[in-house]
Amino acid sequence: MNDADLIAALRGADAVLRATDPATLDLPVPTCLGWTVADLIGHMSGVQRWARGIVLAPTGERVRRPVDDLPTGAALIEYFADGADALVETFTTADLDREVDAFVGPRPARWWLRRQTHEAVVHAWDRQRATGEKLMALDPAVASDGIDELLGLLVDPRSVDTEVFAVDGESIHVHATDVEGEWMVRLAPGSIVITREHAKGDLALRGPAADLLAVLSSRSPIEGTGIETFGSLDLLDRYRASATM
After folding, report:
1. Mean pLDDT, rounded, for 184-208
2. DSSP structural state of residue 134
3. Nearest Cα to 6, choosing from 40, 51, 41, 59?
4. Burial 134-155 (b: 16+ CB within 10 A, else e)
5. Which residue, among 180, 240, 182, 233, has the nearest Cα to 214 in the 3D structure?
6. Contacts 24+ apart (CB under 8 A), 190-194
7. Which contiguous run of DSSP H or E holds residue 205?
8. Which phi-psi region, left, alpha or beta, contains residue 34 (left: φ > 0; alpha: ψ -120 to 50)?
9. pLDDT exceeds 70 at position 242
C-alpha cells in the first residue's frame, strides 16, 4: 500500500477511538484480557507518542516509551486525540525513507506508519467490541496489508511462543477471496517462514481479508465469519494461543 492509503486508514481507525463515549471507559475489553476501554485508550496514547518520537529522533537515537500520568474521563480521550493528530501530521511531513529504530531492528520510518496503522485498526475493533458497536468496515486492500504485516511480525521469535505452538513442519495456507493475497505459514521448532504463494497447507483459511485479519489477530472467533476452513482447526487454536498480538 502507498503512504496516503495507510494514512487514510490510520485516520479512520483513530476516528473510532476518539469517538469513545467517556461513559464506556470502565467497560472490559473482551479481546484484550484484563483491560478496560480506558486502558486501551491509554495504551494507544502512549504507543502513538512513542512511534512519533522514534520517527522524529536523530538516526541511531533510542527513544524510550513514555510513561505518562494519564488523565481520566473525557480528558483521556482528548489526550489520545491530540497524540493521534500529532502522529498523523508527522507521518505526513517526515521523510519516511529515513532509517529509524524499530523493535525488529533499524527500518525506514515508513515501517512505523504501517505498524501504527494496523495497530490502530485492530484496537479500534477492540473498542467497538467492548462497547457493543458494529465493527467498522475495512477496505479489503487495507485488511490484506494488515495480514501481510501481522504474519511478517511472526518471524520475530519474540512474537510467538513456540512451546505453546508445539508444531514441527506443519503449515497454514491463508487465502483472501476479495482482494489479492495468499500466504503460506510454514512452522518448525523455533522458526516460522512466511511466503506469498498458493500451496496446500495442513490448515487452509479462505475468505474475505477483513475476516481473515480479525481471526488471525485473535479479534474474532471463526464462527460467524465468511471464512471457509480445510484441515485441522487445532492448528489455528494453537497459533492464536501462542502469538503475541
Report:
1. 87
2. P
3. 51
4. ebeebbbbbbbbbbbbbbebbe
5. 240
6. 190/157, 190/162, 191/155, 191/157, 192/154, 192/155, 192/160, 193/155, 194/151, 194/152, 194/154, 194/155
7. strand 203-207
8. left
9. yes
- Helix, strand, coil shares of the chain, percent, nearest 5, are 50, 15, 35
Domain 140-242 top-level CATH class = alpha beta
> Residue 108: is its pLDDT beyond 90?
yes
- Cα of 216 vs its chain's centroid, Å: 10
Q: Hey, where are the domains in the chain?
A: 3-131, 140-242
d(CA 108, CA 174): 27
**Which CATH number is associated with domain 3-131?**
1.20.120.450
Nearest-5° angle of CA 46, CA 107, CA 101?
45
pLDDT at 186 over 90: no
CA dihedral 109, 114, 120, 123 (to 10 degrees): -120
Residues 30, 128, 112, 76: is their CA dihedral positive or negative? negative
Sign, CA torsion 63/82/135/146: negative
- State which H helix or E strand residue 176 sits in: strand 171-176
Provide the CB-side half-sphere exposure for 191 (13 A, CA).
3
Phi, psi of 171 (to 5 degrees): -145, 155
Dig out the grid coordinates for 63 from the structure: 527513544
- Distance, in Å, from the CA atom of 170 to the CA atom of 173, rounded to the nearest integer, reads 10
User: Which distant-in-sequence residues (6+ apart) come within 8 Å of 106 by Cβ?
Assistant: 99, 100
| pLDDT tens sequence across 6-58 | 999 999 999 999 999 999 999 999 999 999 999 999 999 999 999 999 999 98
